[in-house]
Specification:
Three copies of one chain form a homotrimer. By secondary structure, the first copy, chain A, is an alpha+beta fold. Chain A has helices at 132-136, 153-161, 165-169, 205-208, 279-308, 325-342; strands at residues 9-14, 29-33, 36-42, 48-52, 66-67, 71-73, 80-82, 87-89, 103-104, 106-109, 112-116, 143-149, 182-188, 191-202, 216-226, 230-239, 249-260, 263-272.
């Protein structure tokens, strides 16, 4: 049985996956997180509700039902449940206390929906990750994606924590300088940060457009991981020798949300502080990321998972290289957090 | 290991799934019932034979072979088996006693093929359900269906025993009055009967055509279950206030035959005593039932099964409502019959 | 856990599945044999290398990488491995001894690639099967095939060792005389030979073209099996009463290579000593074999496997007929060889 960190916020989706209530003509959103099936729906006040997606009567998924202004109705026998998970209408008799489903705390922030699977008494909005860079970026300049992937979420975390892979897997778009870059990682409490610095290198094609076509650049990348599997990647590229400027920076969210032991919801959002009005650049970047993530990362991650099969990752005795420093720290940190939680 | 009632007749199919021998140009019918693979074929005298569908020589399915006038030949090495399951021809040597497959008693009645999986000494044609209403209905007025469904057969039984679901799952065709109807159920030996009575209600669209378009009606529905999962649904609709008349009645067979623990052969046949020559009405009804069963029931039943997974139904502690009275009676009755059989 | 014979040569593919290095624009060949994933690639000198297809770093399949002149590079992080499986380049630090994958001895002969999964100290090229008939047949007169099949390889072996099946499964092409033929089998060390002799019989359609259309013929077929599952079928057909002549003979390889317990790589190659320049005959034969193997054998073998499921073949107590003499000898011989190997 796979164990997951429970007392944390998991991204359930992007806000626009649940349209405003007025226009709700489609079904609620069903999404399984950490093997727990959950239905998400928006009530008339705009808030998002998350309930265990299994009616206590006959076990139909509530997500196959209809969301109302303040409730969701099971599509099979019409039982209706309010935002706290308690039954508010039983067409067939009295509302008894057993007619309840677990409700999960939800916060909507940073254009995303976040759900808490852990102990109710430990819910803490302060634990939400700060993704202010998404809010500060005008919507047209955000590249937003959702990529379900048939691999364990920790393989997806490894992928972002070791960017050297870009040189081999994404040579025509994102890679080229990482292997030769100076890289360090350090831990600050439960956060792990990795830096990649490369001076006067050949800028990868996807970064060149941001440099107005300059071929040589100074590149900086920093990745900050926080549990369980959320990473913000900050990058900056300047023409070689020019100073690094905040206005040249970009910030990309890479959030790996476990669905099951071998499947992951991968949410990403690329933002930037430059060329904000340049729709052509946004289109170019969107295409480059889709190519890199969907056509290159995803097949490799799924093949990797297939080769690992049901083996435990460590039991296969991976050979640890220098580039695995951050991902090893992260795997151990997360494992310790999961174990600490299990013993509390 | 799922247990099934054995000393009973299971419907294996509809008679016309096995065309007359003269025109046999297609393969015999392979159908797995209660996890037992069976091949059905029609001999020259028109009778149907049922044999274990695995050749004792190399385990090829006999259903991949050719049915002859009084035998079936394995398509792999030509061994031929008669209607009693004994080998009648071995092209490669003597017929030895080990060359035999189990044969199953079969009866063809009510336009259907029935097979007995239980003890040979308990075979009893008197246990065949009486479905005379099928025979009494001219073929053009019968709506006959076969719907394989990826859900346990008891979920399909529950579905028919609690017709309140029609109000939520089939609101545009069959539902609308059931939740408000007076409903009672009672047990008579091993039969369970549920009644639904609604006076002066809005007639569901699928019934309105039978009322010559009247919108308000008195509705009666009775469902009689008999083990293991065969139900006859009798309905009558009259313009509100008019007396109930036998000539307004319709009878529908709903027969749920387990294929495996999570898959079911659903056979249905809707008959009626009115509008027997009305082909347009038959076509309308056929479409309405296909919509309700295939597009509405089947997806919900399969989602329900997916949520239950491999859990035992009772272990999930379903909340029992008033509308579950009949299905609970039926589940307990069937369980007791299966256990009694296992101890005899 | 299925056991396989290890100290033997398994055919991994046909030589032309790995084009010459100069034209290598496609990926290396990934093929799982006896449940071991292996990557095959051709180096600049034309030789074929076989390595365990899982990078020791993060377990990506090497077959998703790029083959170079004397090495293969993992497509994920650029580790490069030489033909002996040792890492020859680590872009991220020193080459440590743990950075190695198992390499497997390979021989390319008879237009095929052969791999040794067993003990390194027992590798013996002399154990390679002699398939000189392939080399002696001009390429245009060879009918070469690869048919992956979802059945245990021993079922495919049984199929060739008991050709009586052709009379029932391939009546329009290859069958007709086998059941009535005189058949004997004998064992010579670890080889098993089966003979089929039929005088003055109706020649099967696929053989008739070789007889210039004569309908009656004397037929000879000999099948020689050697472990684990390689068979050469020699056939000769002469107009009835005419002497058997070597120049009328044909030789067909049937090689069953286990992929997993329930899937098999079936390699075949039909050669002959007559009509070598007759392209029309080659085309006819190619079509006849494709029909027999793909449309008739493969579905039957897969249905047979489905009926056997996860049962052990002998546990199901197959009824042994005279025609099973050779396949029973072979199954017992192979089982003894596997057990002997396990105890050495």
């Amino acid at each position: 049985m796979t164990q997951y960190l429970k007392n944390t916020w998991y991204q359930a989706g992007w806000s626009d996956e649940l349209p405003p209530y007025e226009s709700t003509i489609s079904k609620p959103l069903a999404r399984t997180i950490c093997e727990v099936p959950i239905v998400f729906f928006r009530t008339a006040d705009g808030a998002v509700t998350a309930l265990f997606d299994r009616c206590p009567h006959r076990f139909a998924p509530l997500s196959a039902g209809r969301a109302g202004p303040d409730r969701i109705a099971c599509g099979y026998h019409g039982l209706e449940f309010g935002v706290d998970g308690n039954c508010v209408h039983n067409p067939h008799g009295p509302v008894v206390s057993a007619l309840t489903v677990r409700s999960f705390p939800v916060i909507e922030r940073h254009t995303a929906i976040w759900v808490w699977l852990g102990d109710a008494e430990r819910v803490d909005p302060a634990l939400l990750p700060d993704l202010g860079y998404i809010d500060e970026t005008p919507a047209p300049a955000r590249i937003v994606g959702y990529m379900p992937t048939m691999a364990n979420y920790q393989l997806l975390t490894d992928n972002i924590l070791d960017l050297s892979h870009a040189d081999y897997l994404h040579p025509t778009s994102l890679g080229g300088f990482n292997t030769a870059a100076k890289t360090t990682n350090r831990q600050d409490g439960n956060r792990v940060r990795v830096d990649w610095l490369a001076d006067d290198c050949v800028a990868p094609p996807a970064f060149r457009a941001g440099l107005n076509g300059a071929e040589r650049a100074d590149m900086w990348i920093e990745v900050v991981w926080q549990a369980p599997a959320l990473m913000t990647l900050t990058f900056a590229a300047s023409p070689a020798g020019a100073p690094r400027r905040p206005e040249d920076e970009g910030y990309t969210l890479h959030n790996m949300v476990p669905e099951t032991a071998t499947t992951t919801h991968y949410f990403y959002c690329a933002t930037r502080r430059f060329k904000l009005d340049d729709e052509r650049f946004s289109g170019f970047l969107k295409g480059a990321l889709a190519q890199a993530f969907n056509e290159e990362d995803k097949p490799m991650l799924e093949l990797q998972q297939a080769r690992i099969g049901s083996h435990d990752f460590w039991d296969l005795e991976p050979v640890l290289l220098k580039i695995d420093g951050a991902s090893t720290r992260v795997r151990r940190t997360l494992q310790a957090m999961i174990e600490a939680e299990a013993h509390n």
